[in-house]
Amino acid sequence: MDLTKLHEFTTDLAYRAGRITLGYFNVGLRPEYKADDTPVTVADRAAEEFIRLEIEKKFPTHDILGEEFGETQAHSSSFRWIIDPIDGTKSFIRGIPLYGVLIGLEVEGVIQVGAAYFPGTDEMLSAADGEGAWWNGRRAHVSEISALDKAYVCFTNYRSMARYHRAEAWERVNQKAYVSRGWSDAYGYLAVATGRAEVMLDPVMAIWDCGPFPVIFKEAGGYFGSWDGRPGHTHHEALACNSALLPEMLKIIAGN
Prior knowledge:
Blueprint: H1 3-22, E1 32-33, E2 39-40, H2 42-58, E3 63-66, E4 70-72, E5 79-87, H3 89-92, E6 100-107, E7 110-118, E8 123-128, E9 133-135, E10 138-139, E11 152-155, H4 158-163, H5 167-176, E12 179-181, H6 185-193, E13 199-202, H7 213-220, E14 222-225, E15 238-242, H8 246-254
Parallel strand pairs: 3-5, 11-12, 11-13
Antiparallel strand pairs: 1-2, 3-4, 5-6, 6-7, 7-8, 8-9, 9-10, 13-15, 14-15
């Protein structure tokens, strides 16, 4: 397994898929709505179809899981690609450029390669295990701020904190944070991984919404995982922060 070549393939694929989405961006595109009331557009489907086709051509024995077309299992592979063709569709349909194309490669259940491309701001964030995290060709690293009262904290939806029984924990974090901003969805994780913010919190997280982030944060010197300190992408919630803040964050979230 050549992680360098897989990293190159993944970043190139995320970039090309992102350029597809730009052809539909800010042109008055009308979404459809899924059963859970989340929007989907022709751009989401076109980008995921493109990504799937390229993976299937290059790696026909690999499994693929995508938000729009579900899971296809090839040959009980140890490799699984996890795709969100547009993370932040609600932003996308309103012409707000803070959306991303997310691709992660899971090997034996662990994310080894990941890329998150933000077409509206032309930012590429990517990593491969042991090869560092990269932001538009330069090394990406989390910040060194070690106290929450000096930290920028990001979130997606305030109302979801109560809906998923995290209102009290969120209020403790929010009260102590220096700044809290709704730089939402994948863009918040980009901000933390590149040292422009310190914490991102989501009380609910689908696997395709965070496919690339475990390896990106590991290589950027940070943490990505559950609200109680379990690293990884399968906990149905997400906390990302720099390593210096992690002990304080876990203590505040737990109410200790």
